[in-house]
């Protein structure tokens, strides 16, 4: 008989906390969510007074500091999955079997992949090592995060270098990804939108929907649409409507308003 999985969620944005909880309950209704916390102090206090859960989802930036600080105040006996706005590279550098991460906003399909990994490795995993956490913290705090700055795109007689700053948006159609520059030139890119989303600077680019990743510099205005959706108007204009779903609309507005 498998051990019952208990879960703690540390997330300071209450709507995001509720959304993550709902997704976990939907994907694994048999799991027990034992606590939802919003700060380093609150999480540490809970861990010091309760049996540690099987799995913790920790937002890196909590209301009163970085979640890495939790490991300085208590010996964590749980597996950790981080939720973060940091890019793939900084985390990948120190990623081991005991650590996984989810880029925010968290999507159900990515959450399920992390859960499946946890379930597959659960029997062989040990609690997340504080030393790994300190290395990860040092990498992120020291500002060593690296984002993709250029792409190699095919030309008739070879290849050309395309600077990411020159891209107005990325578009996917029929499994082909196209980078469109500010002057309207199209370049076929040998990367999926999912991969680009992981490698692009989240301060500059936003995954609006399944078809588009847009550069903040080309956003001209935002229009309300039905059922809480948004339409993004760009300059130059996209060939079709860029629609942000109701579920992603809040994250999009927060991103614009940073």
Q: Could you walk me through the main structural features you see in this protein, from its secondary elements to its overall organization?
A:
There is one protein chain. The protein is an alpha/beta fold. It folds into 2 domains: 6-141, Rossmann fold, CATH 3.40.50.2300; 150-256, LytTr DNA-binding domain (OB fold (Dihydrolipoamide Acetyltransferase, E2P)), CATH 2.40.50.1020. Helices cover 30% and strands 31% of the residues. The protein is built from 8 helices and 17 strands. The protein has helices spanning 14-27, 40-49, 70-73, 88-92, 108-121, 130-141, 193-199, 246-256, and strands spanning 6-10, 32-37, 55-59, 61-62, 65-66, 79-84, 99-103, 150-155, 158-163, 167-173, 176-181, 186-189, 205-207, 212-215, 219-224, 230-234, 242-244. The strands form 5 sheets. A 5-stranded parallel sheet has the order 2-1-3-6-7, with helices on both faces. A 5-stranded antiparallel sheet has the order 12-11-10-14-13, with no helix packed on it. The longest helix is centred in the first third of the chain and has 14 residues, at 14-27. The chain starts with 5 loop residues before the first strand and ends with a helix.
């Amino acid at each position: 008989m498998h051990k019952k999985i208990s879960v703690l969620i540390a997330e300071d944005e209450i709507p995001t906390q509720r959304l993550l909880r709902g997704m976990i309950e939907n994907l694994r209704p048999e799991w027990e969510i034992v606590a939802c916390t919003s700060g380093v102090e609150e999480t540490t206090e809970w861990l010091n007074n309760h049996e540690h859960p099987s799995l913790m989802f920790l937002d890196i930036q909590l209301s009163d500091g970085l979640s890495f600080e939790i490991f300085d105040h208590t010996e964590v006996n749980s597996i950790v999955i981080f939720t973060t706005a940091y890019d793939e590279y900084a985390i990948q550098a120190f990623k081991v079997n005991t650590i996984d991460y989810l880029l925010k906003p968290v999507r159900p399909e990515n959450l399920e992949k992390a859960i499946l990994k946890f379930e597959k490795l659960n029997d062989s995993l040990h609690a997340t090592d504080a030393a790994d956490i300190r290395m990860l913290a040092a990498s992120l705090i020291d500002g060593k995060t690296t984002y993709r700055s250029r792409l190699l795109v095919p030309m008739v007689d070879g290849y050309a270098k395309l600077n990411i700053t020159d891209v107005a948006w990325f578009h996917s159609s029929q499994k082909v990804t196209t980078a469109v520059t500010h002057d309207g030139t199209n370049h076929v890119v040998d990367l999926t939108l999912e991969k680009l989303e992981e490698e692009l600077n989240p301060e500059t680019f936003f995954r609006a929907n399944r078809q588009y990743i847009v550069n903040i510099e080309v956003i001209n205005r935002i229009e309300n649409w039905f059922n809480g959706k948004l339409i993004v108007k760009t300059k130059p204009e996209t060939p079709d409507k860029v629609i942000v779903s109701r579920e992603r609309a809040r994250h999009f507005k927060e991103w614009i308003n940073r």
